[in-house]
């Protein structure tokens, strides 16, 4: 989720200024989903007793549309985001938005607002679907009315001059997810509890929090709202390692894309647990040569240094490594519909007439 770039007139701040339209639909137990409505981006009319505000029945997604070299706008893996949002909804006892409805909403909004996306290849249109309980009723049970909203904004994300490595902070005090909990889905309530840890990281001079597992406080899980990757070795024989999903990690679409692209580039993709002390020791020994984070907003962000209590270590040279950069290039290429984009990853949206 995390956007690492700052704002400027040409590089707008993440999630601050929205496009002109939004798409909405309301679900009720009686009628199911109402027809999708494309209208102006505007405030919602909401009861102060809306369940989503009180008991947290709210899930969201984040996906991007990019302008390809031929000028057309394509959305990256929207079917996978639709499927994940349905999983999130089921975990929170909410009616899943059907996949075809999710795609039609994306098509409607992107068609209406694609002129907001300049031809600058460093910019993309970030789409934010949200599903929340809008029934006015404070009973402790799943709501009987839900609202689906899709909004969008233009954002940066990748730059020709390459990504800047970030210093990261391993939190010993806070954890993000517990087995059997909600860490594996994009549940709104997963995010506010991370702010205190993020403040702790900032006070330590770091930019992001490394989450350890909540049982042993030992296994590296994620970085802020991003998945983490480790590179072992170098060159074409390098291993690209990421922790396995197991309910406490968010199954990133970017994570999955990078695992597949790694194999295409001739690296060996692996899902393997890495302990924090192992990360430190393997960096010192030169076995782990690179570490980076991945997510829709941040694309691929290299990790330069790690702080863990009183300890501090550098990953590789402390700069963006060659495997990180190769994977990032391949991902950007895939997102903009370049020749390296695997079949079916980009959904082209025709402009509205
Ligand atoms: C959204 C998210 C990610 C990244 O998922 P993508 O599909 O790659 O954007 C990783 N971790 C957390 C906690 C997230 O919320």
UniProtKB/TrEMBL annotation:
UniProt keyword NAD present: no
The protein's required cofactors: pyridoxal 5'-phosphate
Catalyzed reactions per annotation: L-valine + 2-oxoglutarate = 3-methyl-2-oxobutanoate + L-glutamate; L-isoleucine + 2-oxoglutarate = (S)-3-methyl-2-oxopentanoate + L-glutamate; L-leucine + 2-oxoglutarate = 4-methyl-2-oxopentanoate + L-glutamate
GO molecular function terms attached to this record: L-isoleucine-2-oxoglutarate transaminase activity; L-leucine-2-oxoglutarate transaminase activity; L-valine-2-oxoglutarate transaminase activity
Transmembrane intervals: none
SUPFAM superfamilies referenced in this protein's UniProt entry, alphabetically: D-aminoacid aminotransferase-like PLP-dependent enzymes
Organism superkingdom: Bacteria
Chain positions with N6-(pyridoxal phosphate)lysine modification: 186
Coiled coil: none
Class of the enzyme per the UniProt entry, highest EC level: transferase
Pfam family, one: Aminotran_4
InterPro entries registered for this protein in UniProt: Aminotrans_IV, Aminotrans_IV_CS, Aminotransferase-like, B_amino_transII, BCAT-like_C, BCAT-like_N, BCAT_family
Record pathway: Amino-acid biosynthesis; L-leucine biosynthesis; L-leucine from 3-methyl-2-oxobutanoate: step 4/4; Amino-acid biosynthesis; L-valine biosynthesis; L-valine from pyruvate: step 4/4; Amino-acid biosynthesis; L-isoleucine biosynthesis; L-isoleucine from 2-oxobutanoate: step 4/4
PROSITE patterns for this protein: AA_TRANSFER_CLASS_4
Any Gene Ontology biological process: isoleucine biosynthetic process
EC identifiers of the protein: 2.6.1.42
Keyword annotations of the record: Amino-acid biosynthesis, Aminotransferase, Branched-chain amino acid biosynthesis, Pyridoxal phosphate, Transferase
CDD domains: BCAT_beta_family (cd01557)
Residues of the signal peptide: none
Family: Belongs to the class-IV pyridoxal-phosphate-dependent aminotransferase family.
Protein name as annotated: Branched-chain-amino-acid aminotransferase
């Amino acid at each position: 989720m995390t956007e690492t770039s700052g704002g400027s007139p040409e590089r707008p701040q993440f999630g601050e200024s929205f496009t002109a339209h939004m798409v909405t639909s309301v679900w009720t137990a009686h009628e199911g989903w109402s027809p999708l409505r494309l209208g102006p981006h505007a405030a919602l009319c909401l009861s102060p007793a809306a369940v989503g505000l009180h008991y947290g029945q709210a899930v969201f997604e984040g996906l991007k549309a990019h302008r390809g070299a031929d000028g057309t706008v394509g959305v990256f893996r929207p079917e996978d985001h639709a499927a994940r949002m349905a999983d999130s909804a089921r975990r929170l006892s909410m009616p899943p938005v059907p996949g075809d409805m999710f795609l039609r909403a994306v098509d409607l909004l992107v068609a209406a607002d694609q002129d907001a996306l300049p031809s600058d290849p460093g910019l993309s249109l970030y789409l934010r679907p949200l599903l929340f309980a809008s029934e006015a009723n404070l009973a402790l049970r799943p709501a009987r009315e839900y609202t689906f909203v899709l909004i969008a904004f233009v954002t940066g994300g990748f730059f020709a001059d390459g990504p800047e490595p970030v210093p990261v902070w391993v939190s010993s005090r806070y954890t993000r997810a517990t087995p059997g909990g909600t860490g594996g889905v994009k549940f709104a309530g997963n995010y506010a509890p991370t702010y205190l840890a993020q403040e702790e990281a900032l006070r330590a001079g770091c930019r992001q929090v490394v989450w350890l597992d909540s049982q042993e406080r030992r296994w590296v899980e994620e970085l802020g709202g991003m998945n983490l990757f480790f590179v072992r070795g170098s060159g074409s024989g390098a291993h690209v390692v990421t922790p396995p999903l197991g309910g406490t990690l968010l199954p990133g679409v970017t994570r999955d894309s990078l695992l597949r692209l790694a194999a295409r580039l001739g690296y060996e993709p692996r899902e393997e647990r890495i302990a924090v002390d192992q990360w430190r020791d393997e960096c010192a020994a030169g076995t782990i040569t690179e570490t980076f984070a991945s997510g829709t907003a941040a694309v691929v962000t290299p990790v330069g240094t790690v702080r863990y209590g009183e300890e501090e270590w550098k990953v590789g040279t402390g700069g963006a490594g060659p495997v990180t950069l190769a994977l990032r290039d391949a991902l950007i290429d895939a997102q903009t519909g370049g020749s390296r984009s695997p079949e079916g990853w980009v959904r082209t949206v025709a402009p509205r007439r």
